[in-house]
Every structure is written in C-alpha cells, then in structure tokens.
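Summary of Year 1 activities. Much of the first year was spent building the evaluation harness for sequence design. The harness presents a backbone, in tokenized form, and records the residue chosen at every position. We chose the following record to illustrate the format because it has been used consistently in internal testing since the harness was completed.
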C-alpha cells in the first residue's frame, strides 16, 4: 500500500511525500528509521466519494510539466545534484499528482536508477521525446544543457498551442451558439406558426415544408438524436485512438484547406528545432532524427523521419531523402539542409529553418481570427437568411391572400 505523509527532519524542514509499506505501522517505522518526525500519515488508496470525484478531474496539465521542467533546468544549471533538485521540486510543486510523480522519481534515483530510467517508469507523464533527450544527454554528459533545451522547447510549444487555441475559441463558440439557437428555433419556435398557415390554406414553399418537417422530427426524436450523436462521437473517439485512426485523423488535418499549411509549418518547426539542438550537442545525425521524430506529434511525419534515419545510416543524405516528400517537406527545407550538409553547418541551417517556420506560424495564427470571422459571417448569415426566408415567404403569401 502507498501512504502519504507529512514529516519534519532533524533540521525542522517539512517533507511531504509517499511511502510504500504493508501497513500504516510499517510505514511509520520506515519514516522513523529515516529520522523523520511524523506530522500526518494516511493511506492514499482510501479516498472518500468526493475525493474520488475530484481525482477524475485532477491531472497533470501541460503547463505544470513546463513549469517543472524550467525549475528542474534552473536547479541543474546551478550545479545542484539531481537528487537535491528533485527534493526541492517535490516541496515546491503544487499539483498533488505531479508531486507524487516527483517523489517517485526521487525514490528511483536514490535506489540507483538513472534519470531517464526513472522517467521511463512515468511514461504517462513524460513523452518519448522527453525521455529520449534525457537518455542521450546522459550518454554525452550534457544533462544540464538538455534540461534547458527541454524547458525552452516546452515553453515555446505551450505558447504555440495557446495561440492556436485562443484563435479557435471565438469561431467554436459562435458556431456552437448558432447551432443551439438554430435548433431551438427550428424545433420549438417555427412550428408554432404552422397552424396559422394551415388554417389560411396558403400554399407553403418547399423550403418551409422542409423546415416544419425537420422541426417535428427534432421535437419528437430529440432524445434519440442526442443518443445517436453521443454514440457516434464515442465511436469516432475510440477509432481515432487506434494507430490506424491516428493516421487517418492527422491525414485529414493535413488536407484541410486553411489549416493544412499551418500544421505542416508547426511540424517542420518542431522537427528542425529539436534535431538542431541534438546535433549541436554531439548526437549522431541518424539518432538525432529518430529522437526529434517524437517531437512532431504526427504519425505520418514520424514514419517519414524514421525512414530517413534508416536511409542516413545507409549513407544517403537527409536532404536527398526529404526531397522525395515535398508534400510534407517543402523544397526550401531540403535545399537548406543540403547547404548545411555540404558546408558542415547543418545544425545552424536547421535552426534557421525552425526560426523561419516559427515566424510563419506566428503570422498565420495572428491572422487566423481575421480570416475566419468574415467566413463565419457569410456562412452563418446564409443559414439565417434561409431560416427566415422559409418563414417570411409564406407570411408574404398569406398577406396577399388576405388583401
């Protein structure tokens, strides 16, 4: 069983963490043997109803991981040992789930595991790229630089995700409100006008008949419609979690008219930045390509980069291989990589590629709202015009009959 404790050491410092033991008495004996004065000790497995509900919503946010990485990198840069750094972080971390992860890392480090091995045991928190970067740094003796790179990379990636998310919030809210209001109008408001038209014997346009039929259908079968939509969404969600579904979903993203170029630029910027840092740190090119493939976040690019790593091991130039995939890597990318390969400045040229596409992404994201707003106005305005035309036309016909 795992027990959560609060205790003070001989110096009076507060320590918070978890200890594995067969029972509460055994856990207390373990803590006492380490010269700790126990303040509280409770089982982390015995949770009340409300704690269980709150645990569903408790998770390690990406922002928490970014902050942890920056703090870890700062401590490592100050030449503080890994164990002492993790000990400090376990006291500073506010997220209880992340606090437990840090404590587990510290326990594994104290038991003799390397940092990368300890992180592999927490693979649900640390990505393959994160672990691969740490593992490579341990081999080259540049763990401090690797942590600083990860901190910079994660902060940059978080800012990018926030920018894209903020740009999409407005259109998503507008579309959702329109669907809700439009559904209420069709299902409950417009059908109230139907008896008036029936009593007046006015010929209803086809569009109006379709609207009234849709209203009756939605009003009578709304629960079944919600169940079917919910089932369909869950089915799609499970499918997109499969390897085949991930490839299909990312292929769809790469074919969207407006967003395809944006995502391609994001993937190229991630790849170029990661491989540049790794090559600069002395990692062989093939290994750097495989490690950087984990940063992209797209299985299609992941597969291409892994094939390119195999081709590089066989003696082929990276630029030559990527030139075969111009749909995913524009000609400028392979040309600049070729220049870097011929001049021995591959890491510098890759960083230029990353900076160029990062600026391109920033420009696209900043203009995204301005681009989407007029499109939304046209589309929603068209739907509103159809809705009101289907009602106003029979009203106009009714006025003609009365006059």
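For this record, the design step produced the sequence shown next.
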């Amino acid at each position: 069983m795992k027990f959560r404790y609060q205790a003070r050491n001989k110096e009076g410092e507060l320590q918070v963490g978890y200890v594995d033991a067969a029972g509460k008495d055994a856990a207390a004996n373990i803590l006492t043997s380490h010269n700790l004065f126990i303040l509280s000790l409770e089982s982390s497995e015995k949770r009340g109803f409300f704690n269980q509900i709150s645990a569903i919503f408790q998770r390690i946010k990406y922002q928490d991981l970014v902050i942890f990485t920056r703090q870890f990198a700062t401590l490592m840069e100050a030449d503080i040992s890994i164990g002492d750094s993790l000990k400090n972080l376990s006291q500073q971390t506010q997220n209880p789930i992340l606090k437990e992860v840090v404590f587990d890392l510290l326990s594994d480090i104290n038991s003799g595991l390397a940092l990368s091995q300890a992180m592999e045991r927490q693979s649900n928190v640390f990505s393959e790229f994160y672990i691969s970067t740490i593992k490579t740094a341990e081999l080259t003796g540049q763990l401090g630089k690797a942590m600083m790179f990860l901190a910079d990379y994660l902060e940059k990636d978080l800012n990018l995700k926030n920018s894209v998310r903020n740009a999409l919030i407005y259109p998503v809210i507008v579309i959702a409100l329109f669907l809700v209001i439009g559904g209420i109008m069709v299902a409950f408001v417009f059908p109230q006008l139907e008896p008036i038209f029936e009593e007046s014997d006015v010929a209803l346009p086809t569009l109006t008949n379709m609207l009234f039929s849709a209203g009756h259908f939605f009003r009578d079968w709304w629960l079944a419609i919600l169940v079917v939509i919910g089932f369909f969404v869950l089915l799609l969600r499970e499918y997109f979690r499969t390897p085949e579904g991930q490839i299909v979903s990312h292929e769809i993203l790469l074919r969207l008219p407006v967003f395809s170029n944006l995502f391609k630029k994001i993937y190229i910027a991630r790849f170029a930045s990661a491989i540049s840092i790794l090559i600069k740190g002395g990692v062989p090119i093939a290994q750097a390509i495989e490690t950087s493939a984990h940063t992209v976040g797209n299985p299609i690019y992941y597969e291409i980069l892994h094939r390119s790593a195999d081709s590089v091991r066989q003696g082929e130039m990276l630029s030559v291989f990527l030139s075969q995939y111009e749909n995913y890597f524009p000609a400028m990318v392979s040309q600049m990589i070729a220049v870097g390969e011929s001049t021995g400045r591959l890491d510098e040229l890759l960083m230029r590629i990353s900076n160029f596409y990062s600026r391109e992404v920033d420009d696209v994201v900043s203009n995204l709202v301005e681009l989407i707003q007029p499109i939304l106005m046209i589309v929603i305005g068209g739907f509103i015009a159809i809705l009101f035309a289907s009602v106003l036309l029979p009203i106009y016909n009714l006025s003609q009959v009365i006059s």
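The chain has three domains: 2-57, 62-126, 141-403. Quantitative recovery figures across the full test set are reported in Table 2.
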